[in-house]
Design a protein that fits this description.
The chain is 44% helix and 15% strand. It has eight helices and six strands, in the order βααβαβαβααββαα. Helix 4 links the parallel strand 3 and strand 4. Helix 2 packs parallel to helix 3. It binds farnesyl diphosphate.
């Protein structure tokens, strides 16, 4: 069987299970999100060490506004605090930060912090970290179509890609969701068309380097066909001298 390229270039993660992690310990849900930030820090380091080029994480969805007010404000404060506490060390690791999502209904305090963190890390090249915040896959497709319509351009597949919010990176190779649920929850709907899906039972605060390695190992056993047949993929892999290299 031909295999996917050894290390996925782009990993996307739905970091689910923070609330349950906290509730099981009789802690407030926001305490679980705090542990989620610790887990994210560990995951970023592991991705840098393994040569992953892009990591995209779902930190706050368009639908998360519907959560209890104290949890929403807790997540906003967590984001604000993380900007101050995490950005210097992320930057020293060579991480280039992008915040992806609708900014119009975020506070000026938060948006100024996001802009500053992006500017501060713009020259870094080891890992692109996209933090999807106030993001939804449907929002992204709609805003892309709106931009094309405003310019009077035809709305085609080829035209949509460059105006999506993740136009600065290739599509994800590996899509991980922790927390035991098996759904996309409006994350990277367009971009995940050919991503390999991996669902983990582990709650996000427990998702460690070994869990990441397991997800990568499962990915490496998959055959990525991009609509072709298995035989075509094998012939193609022999021709380029590498297994499963992506050409479509
Ligand atoms: C889903 O778990 C997780 C979230 C809605 C928030 C994810 C946020 C973080 C990991 C923190 C990252 C934050 C920053 C500032 C980068 P859930 O609450 O739905 O868990 P549950 O399914 O157990 O209730």
């Amino acid at each position: 069987m031909s295999k996917a390229a050894s290390i996925p270039h782009h990993i996307a993660i739905v970091m689910d299970g923070n609330g349950r992690w906290a509730t099981r310990r009789f802690m407030p849900r926001v305490a679980g999100h705090k542990r989620g930030v610790d887990s994210l820090r560990r995951c970023v380091k592991a991705c840098v060490a393994r040569g992953v080029g892009v990591l995209t994480v779902f930190a706050f969805s368009s639908e998360n506004w519907n959560r209890p007010a104290d949890e929403v404000s807790g997540l906003m404060e967590l984001m604000f605090g993380a900007l101050a506490s995490e950005v210097p060390s992320l930057s020293s690791e060579g991480v280039q930060l992008h915040f992806v999502g609708e900014r119009a209904n975020l506070s000026e305090k938060i948006t100024a912090g996001l802009r500053q963190a992006e500017a501060q890390t713009a020259q870094n090249t080891r890992l692109v970290l996209n933090v999807c915040f106030n993001y939804g896959g449907r929002w992204d497709i709609a805003q892309a179509a709106r931009r094309l319509a405003e310019r009077g351009e035809p709305i085609t597949e080829a035209a949509i890609g460059p105006v999506l919010a993740l136009a600065h990176v290739p599509d994800p190779d590996l899509f991980i969701r922790t927390g035991g649920e098996q759904r996309l929850s409006n994350f990277l709907l367009w971009q995940s068309a050919y991503a390999e899906l991996f669902f983990s039972e582990q709650l996000w605060p427990d998702f460690d380097e070994a869990a990441l390695d397991e997800a990568i190992a499962v990915y490496q056993r998959r055959e990525r066909r991009f609509g072709k047949t298995s035989d075509q993929v094998k012939v193609q892999a022999q021709a380029v001298g590498t297994h499963g290299r992506r050409t479509a």
